[in-house]
Predict the structure.
Amino acid sequence: MTIKVSAISNSEANLKVFADSTVVVGDTEYYPHIGATDMLDNVLITDKPDVLVVDASVGADMNILQQIESALAKFPQIHTILISPDQSVEYLTLAMHIGVRKVLASPVDALSFQEALRFAQSRLAAVALASAATKGGVVIAMVAAKGGSGVTFLATNLAYALARQNKRVAVLDLRFSFGDAAIYLGNTGAKTNVVELAQQYLRLDEAMLEASMAKVSERVHVLVAPATPEQVADVTPVAIEKIIEVARRHYDFVVLDVSSTLDAVAIKAISLANLLYLIVQLDIPNVRAAKSIGQYLRAHGCAPDKMQIVVNNYTRGAHFGLEDVEKSTLARVARTIPSSPAAVSNSVNQGVPLVEITPRDPVARALKEWAENLAPLNGNGHTNGNGNGHTNGNGNGNGNGNGNGNGNGHGAGGPLNLLRKFMGFGQ
Ligand SMILES: Nc1ncnc2c1ncn2[C@@H]1O[C@H](COP(=O)(O)OP(=O)(O)O)[C@@H](O)[C@H]1O
Ligand SMILES: [Mg+2]
């Protein structure tokens, strides 16, 4: 999703810092305005920005907060970042109170500004997602670049983390033969499986769906896959469409564990998703597969802006970085998940979600952050008792620290360069 960023500043140098940062962060259109805040209303009306940057560091008007307040009263959805030398608690509290999302200290530091922009981006994406799904729950398709990329682990554990954000979540195991999603969450109880449900799709309704689900917890239900592949052909695109549509009406989130065989049923499922995560590990076979899958999905009409890359088992300093993956797949790396073999294997083998069994593990934290990002707790959640004050801004509560790293670790010479070229990484 491309966001529009408008900046108002008296300083050419600062406008340049903002400009360079929007380029680093990517997916932005930038509109600089040299001058003072009296131009605020005009800028908002003509640019219609998603993000407003007000630089109060040089020659700024003392009434700046009042001006922002009256402008934001008209455009409350604009994500506003204020740069100010005043970092007193009173000033920060007041700024948050009038709806400023982030106050950065001046002189402005490019890295902090980029972080604030990324945070704005991920928050705006979550807001857009929620409004796109007003008719029902958000459908998230998770597709493996290759087997063993971690799709089932991530799909099930993200589902569980979303439930901890007070959401009702369904996991649909679309790996129709030998699917194992329920096992990752400790549920081995046999229920009606997805094939049996597809066979009766004409009479499927919400009650029937709920009755078919394995109940991992009150808020996490799994539609299991059959143990053997005999009647998989009964799952047709029409049947899967009905199952997903009913699930979307009944749950806040519907997470699809899509097998890496992209047949007509998988394509139908993916086309119904609001968000598509392609799970990739940083090795050549994975990235190569991700590139082909991306091309294939685009050719089948899956909107490019809903496809995002999640790098699993991420370690910095690999032979190639996140930028290379982005160049090759033409999709954005939305998030990285670190590697934590002992904790993950313990969770999988005990069938206890990672955020439950080892909450402090880095992978558990990444999952939690991912879920918070997709389903921020607001006034009616636990985090934000009094509805205003500091809680919803400066603390960066939903942070995206784990998001789009800086793509370091660029390649070595020799054969790797050839591979890089072959895969379209550029030099
Ligand atoms: N971030 C991670 N760190 C360590 N191990 C992981 C991680 N993600 C997945 N795994 C392990 O990788 C294996 C394959 O994961 P799985 O979800 O079954 O892959 P897929 O469904 O894509 O075939 C599992 O045994 C899981 O324990
Ligand atoms: Mg799997």
